[in-house]
Amino acid sequence: MKARIALVLGSVSAALVALIIASPRVIAADKIDPAADAKAFQNFFFQKFPDVKREDFVNGPYSMNADMKRQWQEKEEFPPYEFALDAGKEMFATPFKNGKSYADCFPNGGIGIRQNYPYFDEKEGKVVTLELALNRCREANGEQPYSYVKDEMASLTAYMAFTSRGKPMDIRIPDDPRALAAFENGKRYFYTRRGQMNFSCASCHVQSPGERIRAEILAPALGILNAMPIYRSEWSGMGTTSRRFVTCNSQTRAVPLEPQADEYRDVEYFLSYVANGLPISGPGARP
Hints:
mainly alpha, three-stranded mixed sheet, two-stranded antiparallel ribbon, 7 strands, 45% helix, disordered N terminus
């Protein structure tokens, strides 16, 4: 085990050096320039994996391995997340006790809008994710909020993602220093090492996509949220974006933040923005 970790760390270090040389703006920028960051971020992955089609990055590890991709395509005929889609559709259509519904809280009745979340709320001065917006909708209508990591939230977001499948991620950063700061904070969190493993999010998902940690093939960071929420075999169920962030922190032996903490909302903002133009593929399935 120690030898394997050392091997991964060695690979990470070498790749990090290559990344710094190839794309310094991804690591550090002398000014906040989200458009330049997104271009550099995408170009890094396109150059690192020239045989992977641009839109395939949203399929995570399946875009990195031909055998896995073939197995996944066969599995998609009877997708393991189908139960969540059905449940989410029913939940979305069921009125609250006051007679209103989720459709009353969102533009276009909540259909086909996944690609616009998270967004920066200029009144609040913070990032608002789809999960947070759903719970605010519930509370505004007298309902109890759902757990951000349990099945109900995963089912609702699965259905809403499905209604946006194929639409390009379209995250906006308004001309507001607070929005730029949120993007920058998210980028900083993504590249900051933490936990006993001293890993950052980028250690696995920028430097090492396609490589294995134990039996898992690491997914590329580009488009990683386009497939959320996801069914994971290791979870034997669905997981939300919040659950994925909490799990990643735990896997690096860091102390996870509370779901929907500002840091998680900002890193979701960063990762979603740099995936602009790539299609929504959620809900997804992963090993």
